[in-house]
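Bumping with the actual sequence this time:
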Amino acid sequence: MAVLLSILGSGSAFSGCGANASALLDERVMVDAGSPAHLLLPRLGVRIHDIDLVLLTHFHMDHSGMLPLLLGALAHSDEPPEPGRLTIAGPVGTRELIERLTVAGFGGPTQRRIDDRVAPRYVVLHDGSDVQIGESRVRSHAVVHATGPSLAYSVTRSGLRVGFSGDTTLCAGVRRLAGEVDALVCECSGPDAPVGGGHLWRGEVAELIEDNPGVRFVLNHLAAPVSIPGALVAHDLLTLELTA
């Protein structure tokens, strides 16, 4: 069976190369929430109510900062969402972060409305987690990026394994991830040379591709246009049909 992969946001935090990091799997699973999903999902023909799982790789704002807007859009929707339908999973501290962002940005009444009408379920993931969440099997790998916890994910749906690197250096975690997936949405923050801040650059991504010739690579988190043989370069709202 085929799995749909859509890239909501393909740019790095400050590049202007695309919206911030967010991807969609099978119109149900959203990985990272740096883009305004409540605006972009309808452009793909997806309702915000259709999302049943959000995975956060880490807590930088270009990966997590728009999640309160999605939750608020659900809570204020004319069509009441199904309470408890949505699961939000990520590193330890995910719930605390999202609730603090929501209260700081929109006040306590909005958080209480989210609690009452959306009632999201939170799941804590860590290095080595291998859990079934709804129709998705999620495996987690710790990667080296920021001072806080950072995870990369393998999500299995319909027998196909799709990986999401999050932000990372060329560390053991991302190498393990690349070795277990059929397709990998992989960050490539440096188009020409190594970059700071715990990111991959074109030369390191090319090494990953060479080491994993059977994996389909989709490059995102772009600071500038980049081209690497054997990889597809993402753009906002790109949608692919992946098959094993």
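The tokens above came from a reply further down the thread. Residues 3-242 form a domain with the Metallo-beta-lactamase; Chain A fold (CATH 3.60.15.10).
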